[in-house]
TrEMBL record:
It comes from the Bacteria. The chain crosses the membrane at residues 12-32, 52-74. InterPro entries: DUF485 (IPR007436). Keywords: Membrane, Transmembrane, Transmembrane helix. This is Uncharacterized protein DUF485. It comes from Pseudorhodoferax soli.
Length: 82
């Protein structure tokens, strides 16, 4: 008979799904901005001519790295308390 409280593995899966959904939201917002606003992809964000799309793409990648660190820290903290 399954217990009423979620196991540690179930909590990790839930956290992983939430963080994955957040990453997908960020990614698809970036794709939508590039598709539906052509000026976004070519508009320069700095005086050196770096386009907004490039900086936004870096932000998408950075978001993935940050969310990975959040996942690792939270799951390792739970493991340490176990």
């Amino acid at each position: 008979m399954p217990s009423a409280t979620p196991s540690h593995a179930q909590e990790r899966v839930g956290l992983g799904l939430v963080l994955t959904a957040l990453q997908l939201l960020v990614y698809f917002a970036f794709v939508a901005a590039c598709c539906f606003d052509p000026g976004f992809a070519s508009g320069a964000a700095t005086r050196s001519g770096v386009p907004y799309a490039f900086l936004s793409g870096l932000a998408v990648i950075a978001t993935g790295v940050v969310l990975t660190v959040v996942y690792v820290v939270l799951t390792n903290r739970k493991e340490a308390l176990k």
